[in-house]
Amino acid sequence: MSAGEIRARNPAVAGLLSLLSPGLGQLYNGQPGLMALALVASYGTALAATSAAIGALAMPDPSRGFGRVMLWGGAAVFAWIVSIVQAVFAALDRPEYELRGYNRVPVYLGILALFYLVLPFTLARPVTAWLMARNGIRTPEQVAAWTARVESLRRRAGGPATEVPGAGQAELAVPDLEIQEPVDPEVAAAGAATVIHLVLVGGQDGGVYDMYSTEPSCVHQRGAAPSWANLYARPEDSLGVTAVQLQVNTDSGTTRDFRISVNLGNLPAGRSYVADGATFEPGGVPPSATVDRRGAGAVLRLTGTTDRGVRIEATVQCRRVSE
Prior knowledge:
alpha+beta; Lipocalin
């Protein structure tokens, strides 16, 4: 076949090519614009369905995300079927089609190789990592880095609080935490530097959790942008709360400028719950964070709801503080 040659389009070939890859039948018919539209529609909805499936698996109740998976999955299948049908009918309308430079078998084979061999091998890993991050799931590499950071903090026992660069903003780090699991929370609280009372409402981890540390885990930042932060970390407790991190951007009083994250078990096998003052569903409990100063320390009370409907209620007694 050579460019400029007149050949009718075969509807069966057009349909088969679009079945092999959305848009390929459109290219066969000399419709590169429709090919691009078919690719965006089919692969875009398939990507959204994959993201919804990963997000559902990360939910405390995966069945809540089943509807979104079905919606986007159905849209992907529908877009693919439309591309096949359109390719067949467009071929029927081209009995005197003038071949273009791209109407060659090697071009079709090259496009199939691109979508089924080259792109999967080059994009599968970064796209999967992006989808996991988008749905709040950490990769094994991120878990290892996070664990290494916690261990580094532990080795700096007694040292001053420092700033560790985070994703998009500085994250307050604290000295080593000598953390123990209290048999009786009331007894443990008597000599603790930091006491945490955590309630998760909803989800498979719903319940009450009490923790404490004998060394200060609260950080008070003064200056033009005062804030309170707390890091509780115990990665070895794979069956319980392995981390509670929070930041409240006020010196005292009530604000909605806060963020709290709770890890149950070690990720990615465990589960992570994140809430902030910006996430609020009408009819739910309004998010808030209150700082009640107690001498040099403070009591932090936070209430927020995750995007998956799990409410986090935390009370953190900062009895001794790192400035």
